[in-house]
Amino acid sequence: MLRSRLLQIAPALALGLSLQGYAAPTVQVLNSNLTQAEVVAAQKGWCDALLKISAAYASGGFSKAKATAEAVIDQAYAYQYGPVAFKPTLASGSQTFRPTRAGALAYFVGGNPAFPSDKGFALKPWRSCEVINQVIQLNGSYATTMGNVRFVDSSGKTTTVDKTWSFMKEPDGSIRIVLHHSSLPFEG
Amino acid sequence: MLRSRLLQIAPALALGLSLQGYAAPTVQVLNSNLTQAEVVAAQKGWCDALLKISAAYASGGFSKAKATAEAVIDQAYAYQYGPVAFKPTLASGSQTFRPTRAGALAYFVGGNPAFPSDKGFALKPWRSCEVINQVIQLNGSYATTMGNVRFVDSSGKTTTVDKTWSFMKEPDGSIRIVLHHSSLPFEG
Amino acid sequence: MLRSRLLQIAPALALGLSLQGYAAPTVQVLNSNLTQAEVVAAQKGWCDALLKISAAYASGGFSKAKATAEAVIDQAYAYQYGPVAFKPTLASGSQTFRPTRAGALAYFVGGNPAFPSDKGFALKPWRSCEVINQVIQLNGSYATTMGNVRFVDSSGKTTTVDKTWSFMKEPDGSIRIVLHHSSLPFEG
Amino acid sequence: MLRSRLLQIAPALALGLSLQGYAAPTVQVLNSNLTQAEVVAAQKGWCDALLKISAAYASGGFSKAKATAEAVIDQAYAYQYGPVAFKPTLASGSQTFRPTRAGALAYFVGGNPAFPSDKGFALKPWRSCEVINQVIQLNGSYATTMGNVRFVDSSGKTTTVDKTWSFMKEPDGSIRIVLHHSSLPFEG
């Protein structure tokens, strides 16, 4: 998707003789900035993807869930470019952080002996996923969000997490997660 | 000027029981991006400043023009942070580039023996200054413009230059020129 | 502090007649990027500031701790520019997020009736504070770190948290926290 | 090409009992910044590409030169993402600016009736191309250079231009020109 946009700028008022006959050009704009609307759409995309993996597991078992999760990770996270700063909600100990694709995949669908504590967060029977933003920071092709995500499962039980994401927009318009810190609420 | 803006986001539709009574928060946004409108305003500010130096020279001579130019440079260029990439229209030879404040000041008002060819571009009896943009590139707190600037002097004579600027926006909202390449049109 | 650096570039080999007598210029560099070393120093600065507030409380009580914390927040966080994305370790409920300076101050030193659960994290008798980074992402004048911070108090008890920071560097070289997500480790 | 780098950080001194047995992790770094060395290499790549088009014309005529130029433009400029801010040295009038790929191609090899003044700058018998930088500005995945480029042709004649480039680095490490303002030196 090209981000080039042609914007017609109103001709300047040509008051003086020197500008007679002057036709204002069309200004061409190349905008690399990630907008708030794009960020909100990317968050919704993450929720939709989680529900999709969950549904894949219900309909096709582990192998279908895993294939779905692999496609989601490759599209929504930036692992192909280097370490993603990913701290999933339920990871702990020496495997708290998941800077590699393998670690992310294990967290979402489990089944990897190298990550024995992972049960597959996305395999749960999730029914809804909602993002409630508190702070959004827009910084060029990067943007950060902080707030809550509320998951509801098939029994109606709600799980709420505190979540920070940073997204980056590539020149071709692709948007990927480079930072993801999720944590259970502190019970004071 | 703070760039924080409070945006009221419409509450998400609360369809499930689990969200009953939920009040959507106000999302707070920190936006460091330089907008097209800010860039166009900064360009107009440059033109206005040039006319102001010219008028200062007419009304108060060299010393008033110089003081005005110093204030303009300190506010509109980024010399306090390091070398500005400045290639003025009429500079040449070993003094083609003006990465220092002293070189910029000499170009605008002359009178510096270290820059003997400088006659003071801003001292001419300019009456109007107009920017005609061809390309604008928005990249976070930086933006680049390329196009023409048309100057008209007191005799009605028009001078047109090809001009590229890059602006940066600081966290406090100040906008400064970090790149300025100006050249006379090629006469093919 | 200016970030301008003068780098002497070795003269290109002047092989042809056309370049005879040519003296290579000194390249001037304006570098707005935040380096890994600067990020690590900023993290250490945060730890040192925490210990300083703690020591201020021990030596001068609440008022001295509060004054110290105010100075720290104004210097180390970006609240003057808008909402900081701050999720402290021990905040919860509707006060989980602290996008304002008042909320940050209350978290560090307590004593604000508007934040009744805050006991003052920085008032504890901290003796050491150590950052263990897992991922560092460098992106121009912004950088993100993810890893652990280990605090040891006067009784020798260690508290470890999962922590994400994003820092920004201003044109004058100041480095400030724009994102801070801290959470207790998940106990699986 | 991945830009991820694994950096071994020296273990922190483990002085207290609480850190006994602690093994410092390997910090993983994702660095999106464009370095000065990469910029200088990209400039050299531009010069080499110009000489390559020139040589292609000498050995294979217009069609070979055009094919070479197309490949160069697609690899070295960012036209696939939107308007490039390109003001070639010898373009004038309503075709001074070349925000489209077609305009860039016409400038380098001519032969396009829509750009009747273009003679094909790259078709000249260039023998050397040298960049002399005056200012380099590094700003995350973007960098700007300003200085001179000196071309020598088969007769030994030197042409010097004042040139500004901005480059961007994509997440996959590709480096492309987004801004190119070239002008003949002012003859004062």
Short description:
Chain A has helices at 36-76, 101-109, and strands at residues 4-7, 27-31, 85-87, 126-139, 142-153, 158-169, 175-183.
3D architecture notes:
The structure is a homotetramer of 188-residue chains. The first copy, chain A, is globular, with a radius of gyration of 22 Å. With 188 residues, chain A is α+β, with helices and mostly antiparallel strands. Chain A is built from 2 helices and 7 strands; from the N terminus they run ββαβαββββ. Chain A has a single domain, classed as Nuclear Transport Factor 2, Chain: A. The N and C termini of chain A lie far apart (47 Å). A 5-stranded mixed beta sheet of chain A has the order 3-7-6-5-4, covered by helices on one side. In chain A, helix 1 packs across helix 2. Strand 2 of chain A pairs parallel with strand 4 of chain B, so a sheet runs across the interface.
Q: Give the neighbour order of strands across the main sheet of chain A.
A: 3-7-6-5-4
Alpha carbon gap, first and last residue of chain A: 47 Å
Main β-sheet description of chain A: 5 strands, mixed
How is the quaternary structure best described?
Answer: homotetramer
- Secondary structure tally, helices of chain A: 2
Radius of gyration of chain A: 22 Å
Question: How many β strands of chain A by DSSP?
Answer: 7
SSE string of chain A, helix = H, strand = E? EEHEHEEEE
CATH fold-level assignment of chain A: Nuclear Transport Factor 2, Chain: A
Q: What's the CATH first level of chain A?
A: Alpha Beta
